[in-house]
Write a structure and sequence with these properties.
131 residues; alpha/beta; Nucleotidyltransferase, domain 5; six-stranded mixed beta sheet; globular
Length: 131
């Protein structure tokens, strides 16, 4: 099981979906909130609302997410963890293009990191039960 004390700040990031059900808007349809978190501090570096009409964030959305996260420490992590259950192929490809090792791991191994953020998101914005 992975744990924050295994990492140094900015050594590894985690990409994950904060919401457990699409956020519905009247005119623009559904969105998922994708976040990038530092694994050591569990600090959310950035997040973005991504339309659910695509399978995963587009190349441009993926580039923007990584660029906004990069702005905090002005360097990329060595590793990006992505839940194996989450489709994020463009994000993985963009991270690899920037020399970041991408590791797909079962989501349950990341719950120590992302569980509280999901719970707070649900409390603030509603949705189905937190995972």
């Amino acid at each position: 099981m992975l744990h924050p004390n295994q990492f140094q700040v900015n050594e590894a990031w985690i990409a994950f979906q904060l919401n457990d059900a699409p956020i519905q808007t009247g005119a623009d349809g559904g969105f998922n909130c994708i976040a990038l978190m530092d694994a050591a501090s569990c600090f959310i570096l950035t997040s973005a609302l991504i339309p659910t009409n695509g399978v995963d964030p587009s190349k441009l959305e993926s580039r923007r997410l990584l660029k906004k996260a990069h702005a905090h420490k002005h360097e990329m992590p060595k590793t990006l963890f992505i839940p194996s259950e989450q489709t994020a192929n463009n994000l993985a490809l963009e991270a690899e293009r920037q020399k970041v090792t991408v590791l797909r791991v079962p989501e349950h191994q990341l719950l120590t990191f992302i569980g509280d953020a999901r719970k707070e998101f649900k409390e603030r914005f509603g949705g189905e039960s937190a995972r």
